[in-house]
Amino acid sequence: MLDKLLKATFGGTSKNKILWDGLTELMQIAKYGNIPDAAKSLNCDETSLRDKITCLEESLCIQILHPSTPDVKFTEMGKRFIRRCSGVLEEIDDIETE
User: What DSSP string runs through 46-82?
Assistant: First the structure.
């Protein structure tokens, strides 16, 4: 079921699965709107958080955050990705609670 959701949302095959831990961090950044608060909520340091986002971007071959900005600014592709991931994560939560 999860594979179908991923394929429908992101295309490709199982070998293109995203890094789930990077996705969790990304969604926290989107929730808090900044890296320091997201890092605090995840009990990690900002460098580790940025590294996970970089790994996520590399695995997806997209840029999610604009580089070299003190504030968090999502690229257009990053905004689309977050919107789509939100739906997938809600589906996963529904599956897990059934």
Answer: HHHHHHHHHHHHHHHTS--B-TT-SS--B-HHHHHHH
Q: Rounded distance, CA 60 to CA 58, Å?
A: 5
Q: Which residues are registered as beta bridge partners of 74?
A: 65
Kindly list the distances between the CA atom of residue 55 and the CA atoms of 4, 13, 25, 78, in Å, as whole numbers in the listed order: 23, 19, 11, 14
Please tell me the total number of residues recorded for the chain in this structure.
Answer: 98
Residues 57-98: pLDDT tens digits? 988 889 999 987 667 899 999 999 999 888 887 887 788 787
Residue found by looking up tokens 């504030």 in the block: 71
User: In the prediction, which pLDDT does 94 show?
Assistant: 80
